Amino acid sequence: MPSYNTEVIVTSARRYGEADRLLILFSKDRGRFSAIAKSARKPKSSLRGGSEVFIRATYQLAEGRSLHIVRQIEIIDAHLGIRENWRRLQMAGHVAEIVNKVSVEKIPDPELYGYLANALKGISDGSDDAVIRFKAEVLNHLGVFPELAGCAACATSRVKGDVHLSNEHHGFLCVDCAKDKGIWHPVPMSVLYLLHGLREGQGDLIDPDLSDDEVKEILEQGDEILTMLIQVFLQHGLKTTGATRHARNSKMKNDKKLAKDADNN
Ligand SMILES: [Zn+2]
After folding, report:
1. Given pLDDT bands bounded at 50, 70 and 90, which one contains residue 246?
2. Ligand 1 center to residue 225 CA distance, Å?
């Protein structure tokens, strides 16, 4: 069997048989495909460390009849920081799921590969905005980042007052069009600024004078919109959307607790 080398990121690793791992690999120059790492779960296997999920590595593979077979692995970046906590694991699982779903099997997409590599490195390093930047890059790359300049229905460029998100129009509607179409999904101006910054790839996304809670809230609202747009593009839900909701849930819990405390007083 002829073998070849390619740089990959492991986007999924599952137990297979007695001691094997069944991998989904996203290769820089070959796109997404499945491979088997035989005996990789045995303690002394040379494939053990390099066949874990989220690893970036150079793989030597052989083309089998149905699955590619992993021969050797040289790790480029193990992204060890991802394994430090559950939340980072969830975030990494979320970006990996998006790549597995938006990529087309065996079609190379080196740009998407670059976005994934950056996102995993950012998550591993503890970045707060690695995931939302990744989603914005993916939407831009797919050509479906929402229009931010005006109303997506009537093309008014100067929109006054609230804007409302419309899945159907893949963008934002002025309040008149939103009323007309029975849509009520107001999006705060701070979130629109965030989306604008993301589209332009700006370094500073959020007003530094805001509190941590406000920043979290804006990032989460922006994230929800981008996630929804990716799901609309896929015409399919994502399984891992909970990965980015942590902060808001804990804030809600906190608010409930405050309300309860207030009732008791
Ligand atoms: Zn309009």
Report:
1. low
2. 19
**Residue numbers of the domain that contains 147:** 140-264
DSSP assignment string, 130-156: HHHHHHHHHHHHHT-PPB-SS-TTT--
What are the tokens at 3?
């073998």
> Token pair for residue 28?
């820089």
Spacing, Cα 208 to ligand 1 middle (Å) = 32
CATH code of the domain in which 26 resides: 2.40.50.140
Q: What is the pLDDT of residues 33-90, one digit of tens each?
A: 999 999 999 999 999 999 999 999 999 999 988 899 999 999 999 999 999 999 999 9
Do residues 150 and 44 both lie within one domain? no
Q: Tell me whether residue 105 is in a domain.
A: no
Is residue 110 one of the residues assigned to a domain? no
Backbone angles phi, psi at 242, to 5 degrees: -65, -15
Answer yes or no: is 37 within a domain. Answer: yes
Do 54 and 151 belong to one domain?
Answer: no
pTM for the predicted model, two decimal places = 0.87
Give per-residue pLDDT as tens, 106-163. 999 999 999 999 999 999 999 989 999 999 999 999 998 988 888 989 988 877 777 8
Return the bridge partners of 48, or none. none
How many Å lie between the centroid of ligand 1 and the Cα of residue 157? 9
154 C-alpha to ligand 1 centroid (Å):
4
Residue 188 alpha carbon to ligand 1 centre in Å: 17
